[in-house]
Design brief:
By secondary structure, the chain is of the alpha+beta class. It has two domains: about 1-70, no CATH class; about 140-270, Glucose Permease (Domain IIA). The chain has helices at about 1-20, 30-35, 35-45, 50-70, 90-95, 120-130, 250-270; strands spanning about 140-145, 145-150, 155-160, 165, 170-175, 180-185, 190-195, 200-210, 215-220, 225, 235-245, 245-250. The strands form two sheets. Strands 1, 4, 5, 6, 7, 8, 9, 10, 11 and 12 form a ten-stranded antiparallel β-sheet that branches. The protein has a two-stranded antiparallel sheet with strand order 2-3.
Amino acid sequence: MIANTCFICFEYKKTARFVLNHYSSLLFRRNLHSIFRPAKRALYFCGMEKKMLVLTMYIALAAAPVYAQFNTVARTSSLYKVEVVSAPSDSDAAKKTEQPVAGLPMSDEIAPEEEPIPNDDYKKEWTDRFLSVCYPLRHIRINSPFGYRTDPFTGKRKFHNGLDLHARGDEVFAMMDGVVVKVGQDNASGKYVTLKHGGYTVSYCHLSRTIAAKGAHVKAGTVVGITGSTGRSTGEHLHITCKLNGKNIDPLLLLDFIKATREQCVAALIKVI
């Protein structure tokens, strides 16, 4: 059976090839019987002569044009890739022209700011700022802070409206540029000098001597008096009161401001030494 089947297939291929090669001849119809004679001989062994004959004829007639079509239309390989390229827009052209150049910053980039070379004006600026403030005494040591404390005369708790600094016949300096608004003496503060520094009003009390005159313009560091123990005092010291817009504040705030300002100036001047 296998041998018969193989023989039939072989004969079928042979017959199909034969038909395809002679399809276009003018004698195709006249010699149709002779064309399929090998196929009849092959189908004789399996008893399906009529059915296979019809099937073979159909295949021969259908395959011929297909054979011709596939042999006349050639397939070309895609050797090249077609790509649609649009014309560059103005924005694209602008982007290309804005490409960074080696060694030069972009237009929208900010070059790092170079540190200015210190000069005489730079030194003078920081020196003047350093001299614009001054401690009230050469040496600062607090005896009694601002706030509530035990009154040294009565022993009762009482609010202390100023700051007491240790002093022994020392010169008293104006802490900032200002104007002397009052010079006087009373039973509580003794001899005193009051200076106006913008919105701040500073009084130096219990002085042994006043040096500044009322209405005088003073610079920071100007001597305005000498410490003492006049008025209501248990010993020599400098009593400082400070008001901001008429309200008592802690004079230590001014001392802290003086300290911060001078430290900043010293740090700036060290760079040019």
